[in-house]
């Protein structure tokens, strides 16, 4: 969601001057509109309005709680504003980057690019090459998701060069993995396997289990594209074991979802549905709307192949709604085609 303030906050100091309430002093007043921030005086509230108005929104009448990603967007946006007022550019850059990650998880790619770009400019201004590399890597991930592959290759290559200059092996592995994802999307499978393997070797040398799980999962996707399904299942299963061992729920959801895709391709549709349902539950727990939508689409595919057209239409429609909510025109068009094909098949069978 766009820059909306959380309905509740545990911050007790003044949102403008940062003064903390004295023991015998009357409680600071909350902003009447969003009820999320406090002020020690009307003067501070008026001075802060020029900044606060961008994140202030009326309290929703609904009692539905914010999910984790929405709360993270709000918290990091407010944090970045406070760092900006305090003149703490380094912390502002970090907060902007974390906000970008949260917006990316919600599928709000334009907002993510906006925050990552601001973060990148700050790190370059400060000469913080490590921060610059991280911001470039995050930007590249979003460019890949929206199909801007040339931009993605450019920023990931810059990240790779920075990581090698700094001797940052973790960053190097991450940049290689991200480049592999771009090559895979471009259909350059052999090149993708080459860089994924380099990334995997680095992760194993460093004992980076999360990185190892990601590299295995990415390689599994390439072998699935090559229709080497047994190899894909082997790699996805290894990544799943690692992600569960380290408690990486996002990685677990990705690995389970990929297993569902492979089993669906092999005709094991009921087993695929079990995997996708597990992935769906994880996506909802994490507040990852983009992945939730993709999983609805995968469930629609499985029910379609089972000939259960009504169930397929139900899940395709849910996917369509999320695509429209997130402004995902590519996903929307694909889902509309799936709905058209499924509706025609249902009519022909009646």
Structure summarized in a few sentences:
It is built from 15 helices and 2 strands.
Task: Write up this protein.
The protein has 350 residues and is an all-alpha fold. Among the domains are: 1-62, no CATH class; 248-350, Serine Threonine Protein Phosphatase 5, Tetratricopeptide repeat. Helices cover 74% and strands 1% of the residues. It contains 15 helices and two strands. It has a two-stranded antiparallel ribbon with strand order 1-2. A hairpin with a 7-residue loop joins strand 1 and strand 2. The radius of gyration is 23 Å and the shape is globular. The model is unreliable at 1-11 (pLDDT under 50).
Q: Which whole number gives the mean pLDDT?
A: 88
Strand content: under 5%
Order of helices and strands: EEHHHHHHHHHHHHHHH
Summarize the amount of helix as a percent range.
over 70%
Summarize the SSE layout with pairings.
Elements: E1 29-30, E2 38-39, H1 42-52, H2 68-86, H3 89-105, H4 109-126, H5 129-145, H6 149-166, H7 169-185, H8 189-206, H9 209-225, H10 229-246, H11 249-265, H12 269-286, H13 289-305, H14 309-326, H15 329-348
Antiparallel strand pairs: 1-2
């Amino acid at each position: 969601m766009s820059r909306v303030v959380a309905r509740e906050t545990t911050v007790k100091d003044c949102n403008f001057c940062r003064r903390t309430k004295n023991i015998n002093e009357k409680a600071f007043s909350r902003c009447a509109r969003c009820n999320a921030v406090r002020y020690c005086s009307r003067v501070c509230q008026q001075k802060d309005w020029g900044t606060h108005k961008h994140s202030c929104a009326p309290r929703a009448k609904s009692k539905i709680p914010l999910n984790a990603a929405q709360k993270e967007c709000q918290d990091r946006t407010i944090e970045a504003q406070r760092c900006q007022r305090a003149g703490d550019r380094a912390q502002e850059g970090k907060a902007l980057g974390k906000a970008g990650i949260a917006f990316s998880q919600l599928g709000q790619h334009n907002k993510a690019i906006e925050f990552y770009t601001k973060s990148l400019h700050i790190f370059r201004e400060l000469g913080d090459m490590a921060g610059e590399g991280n911001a470039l890597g995050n930007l590249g991930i979003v460019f890949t998701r929206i199909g801007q592959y040339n931009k993605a290759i450019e920023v990931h290559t810059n990240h790779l060069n920075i990581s090698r200059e700094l001797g940052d092996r973790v960053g190097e592995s991450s940049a290689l993995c991200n480049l592999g994802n771009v090559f895979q999307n471009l259909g350059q499978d052999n090149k993708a396997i080459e860089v994924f393997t380099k990334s995997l070797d680095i992760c194993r040398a460093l004992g980076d289990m999360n990185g190892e799980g990601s590299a295995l999962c990415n390689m599994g996707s390439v072998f699935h594209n090559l229709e080497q399904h047994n190899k894909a299942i082997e790699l996805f299963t290894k990544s799943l074991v690692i992600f569960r061992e380290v408690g990486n729920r996002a990685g677990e959801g990705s690995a389970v979802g990929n297993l569902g895709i492979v089993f669906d391709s092999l005709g094991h549709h009921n087993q695929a549905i079990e995997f996708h349902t597990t992935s769906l539950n994880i996506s909802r727990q994490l507040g990852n709307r983009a992945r939730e939508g993709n999983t609805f689409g995968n469930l629609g595919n499985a029910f379609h192949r089972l000939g259960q057209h009504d169930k397929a239409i139900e899940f395709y429609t849910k996917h369509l709604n999320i695509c429209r909510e997130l402004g995902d025109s590519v996903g929307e068009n694909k889902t509309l085609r799936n709905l058209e094909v499924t509706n025609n098949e249902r009519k022909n069978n009646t």
